[in-house]
Amino acid sequence: MKFVDPASDITFHKDDVSNSKTARVFNEFSDLEIGDKITNNDLQKIFKCGPQGGMRKSNITNTLVLVTDQTRSAKDNPYVDKWIDNIFHYTGMGLKGNQSVSFMQNKTLSNLDETNTKAFLFEKKSKNCYTFLGQVKLHDNYYFEQQSDSEGHIRVVVKFPLEIIE
Question: Among the residues of 2-126, which ranges form H helices?
Answer without folding.
Answer: 23-29, 40-47, 104-110, 112-115
